[in-house]
Backbone:
């Protein structure tokens, strides 16, 4: 009877972490679309930048509200997670004390949602930039 | 600067930009990206119209 323990132990493949696989998501978080641009996907990066930045700025212009880290309420925390995805835009908004809308009318609430969705879309763009960096996508 | 969009234009703007990101990130080739982006845009706007008419029917 063959002893299965006598065979050579299987060695797990070593996963190499390239510089780009770390840099692309980080840069992509800070500036939407930049994770694609540094990998020479210029048009994709530009379209992502325009889409995410325009959505976020429209949200601000519609008097949307920006969520902060210490919201307390669970929905505020979820809103914060969405907003923080916008990276540099979120930091810029906090630094300038923008996004203090009181949500007095329906479109202001749409503005709040626009900014959250812009952040969430940037998370998807970051994941895409990472997949390009590791060669999973062209 | 304050922008006031009505409900449908807000939904259309949202659909446009979300569709662009979905198209780019969910498909591999340029042709597939364009097709999927257009599909998402149509589904977003179609969903808005269907939901709008459904609410109109419920309200009657």
Residues:
């Amino acid at each position: 009877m063959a002893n299965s323990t006598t065979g050579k132990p299987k060695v797990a493949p070593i996963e190499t972490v390239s510089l780009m696989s770390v840099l692309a998501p980080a840069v992509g978080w800070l500036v939407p679309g930049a994770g694609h641009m540094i990998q020479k996907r210029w048009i994709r990066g530009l379209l992502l930048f325009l889409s995410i930045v325009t959505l976020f700025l429209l949200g601000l212009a519609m008097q949307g509200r920006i969520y902060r880290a210490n919201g307390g309420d669970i929905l505020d925390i979820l809103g914060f997670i969405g907003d923080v995805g916008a990276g540099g835009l979120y930091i810029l908004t906090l630094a300038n004390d923008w996004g203090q809308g009181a949500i007095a009318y329906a479109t202001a609430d749409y503005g709040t949602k626009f900014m959250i969705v812009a952040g969430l879309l940037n998370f998807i763009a970051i994941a895409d930039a990472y997949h390009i960096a590791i060669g999973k996508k062209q | 600067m304050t922008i006031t969009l009505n409900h449908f234009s807000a939904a259309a703007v949202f659909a446009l930009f979300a569709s662009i990101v979905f198209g780019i990130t969910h498909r591999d080739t340029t042709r597939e990206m364009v097709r999927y982006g257009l599909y998402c845009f149509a589904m977003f706007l179609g969903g808005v119209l269907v939901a709008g008419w459904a609410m109109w029917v419920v309200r009657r």
Helices of chain A lie at 19-30, 34-37, 42-61, 74-84, 88-95, 106-133.
